[in-house]
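User
Class, as today's exercise, I want you to study this protein, comparing sequence with C-alpha cells, and judge whether sequence predicts the C-alpha cells.
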Amino acid sequence: MAEVRGGGESGDARPELDEDLSEVSDFLKAIGKQIKLLRERAGLTQKEFAKKVGYTESLIGAVEQGKRTPQRELLEASERILDAGGLLIVTADDIVSAKAKARVRHPAWFRNYAGMEAEAVEIHEYSTLVIPGLLQTEAHARALYGMRQPLLSEDVIERRVSARMARQDVLTRWPRAIFSWVIDESVLHRPLGSEKVHIAQLEQLLTVGRMRGMTLQVMSMARSENPGMAGPFTLITPKGQPQNGYVEIQQSSRLITDPEEVRIMNARYGTLRAQAHTPKDSLALIEKMLGER
C-alpha cells in the first residue's frame, strides 16, 4: 500500500505548500499581458470585459496576471470582442500544452494522484460529503476553497481552483476513460457557496450525466442499507496498470495498491451502484430538485 499525506478533493490541508509554476509562468503571463493590452485598447474595464465574455472579474484578473490558464472558450470570446486579429486564438493549441504542464500547480502530496488521474482509463467514485472534483463548477470549487479553515490566501485559492478546473480536461479528451459516480443524496441538498452557485452546480451534474460514456447515480437518503457508510473512496485504473483505491479524510489520504483491499472496495462499489437510483432516475431526481428551487 502507498500512502500520501494531505487532503485533495475536499480542500487543502497544507496551504503552506506552494506550486512550481516555473515551466509555464512566463508563457501564461505573456498571454495575460496581451489580453490586458487589447482590453485597455478597447476601452473596457476588467468588470465590463468579464461581463461581455461571461466570466467572473476575478478570473479575468487572474488570467491577465498569468495566474490562470485561459480556456479555449475564453480565448475565442476575447478574440471576437477585442478584435484581436488572430493574436489570441493562435495560442489555443499552445494553451493545451501549457495546461498539461500546469498540473505542477497541485501541491506535492496530490501530484502523484493527479498524474495518475490524467492518464487513467477508468475512474469510479463514491462521494458522501462534496461534489466530486471532476464535476465541480468553478464557482463551487472557489466556494469550497474560500471556506477552508485555516483560511487560504486569495492567491492560493485562485491557483487551487485553476488546478482543479484543469483536471477536468480528462472528461472531454479522446479516447475517453470510463467514468462513474455515486453521490449521496445529502450532497445535492447542501447549497454550498450560495443558492445561485448550487443551482449552477446541479445543472452541471445534469450536463455531465447526459454525456455519452458518463454514469452518474444518486444514493437515496431513504435507503435502509448503505455499504458505503465507512466513507467516500475512488477506484482508479491507470493505463496498463492494475486498479488502485484512493481515500481521503481530514489531513490524510491513501493511495491503496494492495490487491485484496482494492478487491473489497470494488465489491463495495458494485453494491453501491446496485442500491443507488438508476442513472435515468438519478437525473430525474436532480431535475426535480432544480424545479423546486
Q: What stands out?
A: Strands lie at 2-5, 120-127, 178-184, 214-219, 233-238, 244-249, 252-256. The radius of gyration is 20 Å. The longest strand covers residues 120-127.
